[in-house]
Specification:
InterPro entries: GPCR_Rhodpsn, GPCR_Rhodpsn_7TM, Olfact_rcpt, OR51/52/56-like. GO terms for molecular function: G protein-coupled receptor activity; olfactory receptor activity. This is Olfactory receptor. It is found in: Cell membrane; Membrane. Keywords: Cell membrane, G-protein coupled receptor, Membrane, Olfaction, Receptor, Sensory transduction, Transducer, Transmembrane, Transmembrane helix. The protein is mainly alpha-helical. The protein has a single domain, classed as Up-down Bundle (Rhopdopsin 7-helix transmembrane proteins). The chain has eleven helices and three strands. It has a three-stranded mixed β-sheet. α3 runs antiparallel to α4 and α10 crosses α11. The protein starts with a helix and ends in a 5-residue tail after the last helix.
């Protein structure tokens, strides 16, 4: 590998290109980005306000949903404003410090959301399999402890990744063909050996997100086993309906991300701009659609939204 002594260059400022190959379309591409960001901010902020201000919604499921909505706002804010600055003003210049900070917040927020979705699956499992003990098991104290555990898990796993990035010297290039900074995308421009970064990134993925997916699958396997042993058909339908919103959000959160990773790994013939667009969709779609899904499928939230937006019609 090339070393710093060979080049005499150590980049501290990088340039994000946006979506390479579609530079002349950036203004048009910015329109769905901007609309989705506005919907994300309004939808999730409304969701948080309603849940926090309405005592009837101070239940475990809604408190976890409030956490998810807050994380959605952070996830979108980590990426969309930077992308819009590139599309509108060609302001792609970013310092190494800001780039690494973006990696930290992006990775940690994504991991937090994964942990929250796992806890929400556990919540549905308790609600369906142990309905009489639901409120005694999922107390506010336990919910607070779960929030702290998710926070600690995230920061204990992401902090070493950031340390591994900061130890690198970047001498290969300072042009990043993306709308945001991400771990390996930045590390591959280092002139140092990045095998530790690659393997640690793989370890983090397997020990958190992949483990979360497996545990969510197990939770829903147990839920389905319990549901199909309920003698009443109406009770079965009601139990499955309560899980509908969460299942939609799970598919929406993990689906685009998994598809994006698979195309990067196996779709070598796919143009670079398609990879970048897929990566952005995986960051844009879930935060925008989550509040819509819960607003449509959850009667209590839907009623509160109607009351807030159209008070005279209540």
């Amino acid at each position: 590998m090339a070393t710093l002594s060979h080049t005499g260059v150590s980049y501290t400022v990088f340039c994000l290109l946006g979506i390479p190959g579609l530079e002349d379309q950036h203004m048009w591409i910015s329109i769905p980005f901007f609309i989705s960001y506005v919907i994300t901010l309004l939808g999730n902020s409304l969701l948080v306000c309603i849940i926090l201000t309405k005592r009837s919604l101070h239940e475990p499921m809604y408190l976890f949903l409030c956490m998810l909505a807050g994380a959605d706002v952070v996830l979108s804010t980590c990426t969309v404003p930077q992308a819009l600055a590139i599309f509108w003003f060609r302001a792609g210049e970013i310092s190494l410090g800001r780039c690494i900070t973006q990696v930290f917040f992006l990775s940690s927020t994504f991991m937090c959301e994964s942990g929250i979705l796992l806890v929400m699956a556990f919540d549905r499992y308790i609600a369906i399999c142990y309905p009489l003990r639901y409120t005694t098991i999922l107390t506010r104290t336990l919910i607070g402890k779960i929030g702290v555990i998710i926070f600690l898990r995230t920061h204990c796993t992401i902090s070493p990744m950031i340390f591994l990035l900061k130890r690198l010297t970047f001498c290969r290039n300072n042009i990043l063909p993306h709308t945001f900074c991400e771990h390996i995308g930045l590390a591959k421009y280092a002139c140092d050996d990045i095998h530790v970064n690659i393997w640690y990134g793989f370890f983090v993925l397997m020990s958190t997100v992949i483990l979360d997916i497996v545990l969510i699958f197990v939770s829903y396997a147990l839920i389905l086993h319990a549901v199909f042993h309920i003698p009443s058909q109406d009770a079965r339908h009601k139990a499955l309906t309560t899980c509908g919103s969460h299942v939609c959000v799970i598919v929406l959160f993990y689906g685009p991300g998994i598809f994006s990773v698979l195309t990067q790994r196996f779709g070598r013939h796919i143009p670079l701009h398609v990879h970048i667009l897929l990566a952005n969709v995986s960051m844009l779609a879930p935060p925008m659609l989550n509040p819509i899904i819960y607003g449509v499928k959850t009667k209590q939230i839907r009623e509160q939204v109607v009351y807030v937006l159209f008070p005279k019609q209540k």
